[in-house]
């Protein structure tokens, strides 16, 4: 997961929208309803809060003690109760709570300074980047708005499915379309080559190039003999 690409609200709730579904921030699981994502987060990742506090990313600089403190604060425990659990004084807990608040104020000021200079928040609502993408560059900096505009422009939506009217020239636009095309494949399903070709041929006449893009940009994987495919993002 690319934490730097998600808005604060999505980080807090533990999931974000992708291609009309809701994807867990900590794995590739997707659901159609918020309740289903929340159930998944609780069962698989210990809940949205614990998953966020213990997130495996270079941007998470919390120590184990700080994580325990924040978990206790989230439960509205009294300072003395937390102090007893950690074997410290209540004044130490009060000081740590003050420190957290000061850091939050510093972060807020820095964000304002950054936006004043660069004219943009560093955490736009970008689509997540496939972990197995061979090249991870600005072509993958795709906002939800860009996704919506591009898919509406290049796809025709019918009862039978989606049809790609033409392939755009820019690679960023092609990658944007791949997010939607990948949704035609289910996770945890193995597809024989002929079934993949049939699915893609219904979307675009040059299905071979679409298949190659899906592989190269980390949406699908395949066996070495090219006979079996499966979705990885």
UniProtKB/TrEMBL annotation:
InterPro entries in alphabetical order: DUF2087 (IPR018656), Sig_transdc_resp-reg_C-effctor (IPR016032), Znf_C2H2_type (IPR013087)
Gene Ontology molecular function, alphabetical: DNA binding
Keyword Transcription regulation applies: yes
Record key words, sorted: Transcription, Transcription regulation
Residues covered by the C2H2-type domain: 24-45
Pfam family, one: DUF2087
Any one of the GO BP annotations: regulation of DNA-templated transcription
UniProt name for this protein: C2H2-type domain-containing protein
Organism, scientific name: Secundilactobacillus paracollinoides
